[in-house]
Amino acid sequence: MTHTTRLPSLLQISLVLGTFLCLASSFTISFGLPVQLALFSGWFLVITLGLYLGHAYDELEKAASKGIHDGMSAILILLSVGVLTGTWVSGGVVPSIIYFGLNSISPLLFLPTTVLICSITALATGTSWGAAGTAGIAMMGIGQGMGIPAPVIAGAVLSGVYFGDKLSPLSDSVILASSMSGVKVPSHIKRMLPISVTSYLITIVLFGMTGLQYGQSIDLNQIDQITQALDSHFHISWVSLIPPVIVITLLARNKPAFPVISFGAFLGSVWAFVFQGQDPILSLRSAWILTSPDTGISMLDQLLSSGGMYNMLGSLAVIIFGLGFGGLLDKVGIISAIAQRMEKKIKSETSLTGFTIVTAFMGNLLGSAMYVSLILTPRLLAKTYDRMKADRHLLSRNSEFGGTLTSGMVPWSDNGIFMAGILGVSTIEYLPYMWLSYSCIVVAILVSYLSPRNGQAEEVSNSDFVENNNQLETEV
């Protein structure tokens, strides 16, 4: 049985999305309710609209399930990172890194060093989440031990992990953006390099200048208190650095992330039993939830009790609801309808770049997941780029900048929830310091404005876009 369906009108879209955004913001900001409830309610808003537009309920449910299935790798990595952070704290890995870092990193160079270490970790492993859950947590501990505000450190961590993740051939976001755009991974990375490196240098300079401001007022007594607390509660040793070396080496050799990170978590449990003298059952329990070490320093206690799979369950619910919500938006045609209306304003390569970045950001804002953004944006705009005779590498680059780099900016997105939870800093607090993301977007738009092709791109008629959208719906 076939169903006659329609695209939603602008009024219908405004009512549904306006209601959802009001729910998301009011739940989290005004009432202190979890954003998961807003996403759960959002499903029924879109389903109601879908039924009104002629879609069968079974089709809508399958669309939500497909959206969740498309992001299953993110769910698996999320859980494995939670287990890894728990066992690495229990096994003395994270405490040892913090201890050695406090004794070796110059306070004046701490922030740019954080960007560098986190970018190298993400580049080698291909996962921003894994890098944030390992090097990021360690740098948060070191920085707060030096008295640097947590939101600033979180901004440096995010700048580093997103830079490395965006340029790693092992990254799932890189593979997704390039494959959905129809280009090869090496050429995709190569075309991103000039803008990414330029933005990276700008970011390093900005954090270097900021580090000079905080470096002059570092309390060395506080650093001594933290190192003494770590030394008294954990067996600090260079042997504790072996698990990170093994995990980074395996990921750098292009081994799949989920089993490698899980193996690293197992090593953490072994280290807890062998080197920290913990009971075997207690060392395994740290994979699920951590017990605060009670060092007498509240910041350190909070940091060393934030790991374990249990602490990832809230983020897991966000990802599941967000991916399903994105699948429903795709099926009902809300994002397609918005893109159709916005496309009329595309007149040049600059407007095309800006439009793509905005569309990708909307995927994060409305779909609540980076995967939704990186899947929908190239699919929606591929034929637009072809008709305007724009290089598909421009599509993959802009989708990556708009999708990957803005994913941590949305408090109810998968990245926003994960990064806030793992780093212990709310999205709103670290948002002003995501300097790599801002500089990349600005530089990308500036480069497109200065491009010789700017202003020479062929316009796309509305009928062309409707044809593109109809074909997309047929493929879905």
From TrEMBL:
The membrane topology noted for this protein in its Swiss-Prot or TrEMBL record is: Multi-pass membrane protein
Major localisation? membrane
Q: Per the record's keyword annotation, is Membrane included, yes or no? A: yes
The transmembrane segments are: 36-54, 75-102, 108-132, 193-214, 234-252, 257-275, 309-329, 350-376, 433-451
State one molecular function term (GO).
antiporter activity
Protein location: Cell membrane
**A single GO cellular-component term on record:** plasma membrane
Q: Which UniProt keywords apply?
A: Antiport, Cell membrane, Membrane, Transmembrane, Transmembrane helix, Transport
The Na+/H+ antiporter NhaC-like C-terminal domain covers: 160-449
* NCBIfam families per UniProt: antiport_nhaC
Q: What family does the entry list?
A: Belongs to the NhaC Na(+)/H(+) (TC 2.A.35) antiporter family.
State the protein's name: Antiporter
